[in-house]
Amino acid sequence: MAEPPRFYFEDVVLHDVQETPALTLTETHVGLYAGLSQDMPAGPGLVPELLPLCLTTGLGWRIPQPPLAVLAFMGFDWEVLHPVRVGDTIHSRSHTAVKRSMREGGVVVEERQVVNQRGEVVHRGRFTFLVAKRPS
Amino acid sequence: MTEAGRRWFEEIEVGEESESPGRTVTETDLVIFAGLSGDYNVLHTDAEFMKSSIFGERIAHGLLGLAIQSGLFSRAGVPYATLGFGTLRWKFKGPIKIGDTIRVRARVTAKEEGSKPDRGVVTVERQVLNQRDEVVQAGETELIVERRPAG
User: Fold this and answer.
1) Tell me, what CATH number does B124's domain have?
2) What total number of domains does chain B contain?
């Protein structure tokens, strides 16, 4: 059986900007997320502040390329700049800022922004992943 | 205290510690989070593929653990009159597997003036522990908390 396609460390291009398709945030997203996590919005009409962060990875999956061969999500730094409300349409913009080869795989640091329908950067941060190298 | 029984910025003390109840992470949690987020990485969704991985089985999305600890934190001690997050610095240190029971241990490390007079910034160090007391996630969060209204 053929291996499913994956995006390996060697395939990652530095500084290549990727924009995902967008997603409109609904009461349903808030209800499902709050029911799952018990993490509530800070006020009426707002979305829980970790929700856009949780959605950025899945938004990345909608870019037509094979999924990154993540061995481990090592960590992230994140900054909440502006409130995000139910009805806002967000997408994610990212680029790889650092690529460091290791013995087992490589470290990839990705700068990521969450952008709303007015083009405002509402959240932003850096994600660090350990990514597999292409099997020889 | 606010009317909803939450603590004002002034009522939070540097050095105070709290620990949440536990929560068992289930397969259902992983499935709902994959559906909600659209993150179908094989790490979280392909039981057969993961048998041959270093984890030996599916693991929870790191961000699912983050979301769950945020909910648990609100149950650890008397909640703050939180307006929102400022920043988060977070490390994923080990896997959360289906059936693991996680809880959050938190300590207030700093309090600072906010960007406006009605709020302050509270820095909270957090550790997410599993049932074996292993730290699976850890980080530092800056929370924007309301001040007690004057008068």
Assistant:
1) 3.10.129.10
2) 1
Which residue in B has a C-alpha nearest to residue A74's C-alpha? B92
| CB pair distance less than 8 Å for A62 and B66 | no
Whether B67 is covered by a domain: the verdict is yes
Whether A54 and chain B come into contact, CB under 8 Å, resolves to: yes
Highest mean pLDDT among A56-60, B49-53, B138-142: B138-142
Between CA B17 and CA A130 the distance in angstroms is 32
Give the domain range for residue B32.
9-146
In a domain, B151, yes or no: no
Mean of pLDDT over chain B: 95
ipTM above 0.95, yes or no: no
Q: Is A126 on the interface with B (CB under 8 A)?
A: no
Please give, rounded to a whole number of angstroms, the shortest distance from the CA of A29 to a CA of chain B.
7
